[in-house]
Write a structure and sequence with these properties.
By secondary structure, the protein is mainly β. It contains no helices and eleven strands. The strands form two sheets. Strands 2, 4, 5, 6, 9, 10 and 11 form a seven-stranded mixed sheet that branches. Strands 1-3-8-7 form a four-stranded antiparallel sheet, with no helix packed on it. Strand 4 and strand 5 form a beta hairpin. It is globular and about 40 Å long. About 35% of the residues are buried.
């Protein structure tokens, strides 16, 4: 059974940092690209960042470029999202997802999803 479990969310002041983790099990992790998505209150879920199977390629939502960094440790079956200089508009539920052998921002392409972790940025 494939599981993706997010952690690291919480309440942080604007300008602060958080690191989200996505721990995977039940799949050959090194064959899956991983993406982070978020859903803000009252909005559709949107792509945030993605990383290729090797970690050599990444992609980001324009509004998080230079602030967020996605990385992975295949030995630990874990992907990270380092979020710096957080803004009020980053408040959302964050989800990680896995897609077989791809780097994509297309939500419909993803095979497996976690249940999410909440990030609240306060002023």
């Amino acid at each position: 059974q494939v599981q993706l479990v997010e952690s690291g969310g919480g309440l942080v002041q604007a300008g602060g940092s958080l690191r989200l983790s996505c721990a995977a099990s039940g799949l050959i992790f090194s064959r899956f690209g991983v993406g982070w998505f978020r859903r803000a209150p009252g909005k559709e879920r949107e792509f945030v960042a993605a990383i290729s199977v090797s970690g050599g390629s990444t992609d980001y939502l324009d509004s998080v470029k230079g602030r967020f960094t996605i990385s992975r440790d295949n030995a630990k079956n874990t992907v990270y999202l380092q979020m710096n200089s957080l803004k009020l508009e980053d408040t959302a539920d964050y989800y990680c997802a896995a897609v077989f052998m791809q780097l994509t921002k297309r939500e419909a392409s993803y095979n497996y999803w976690g249940r999410g972790t909440q990030v609240i940025v306060s002023s």
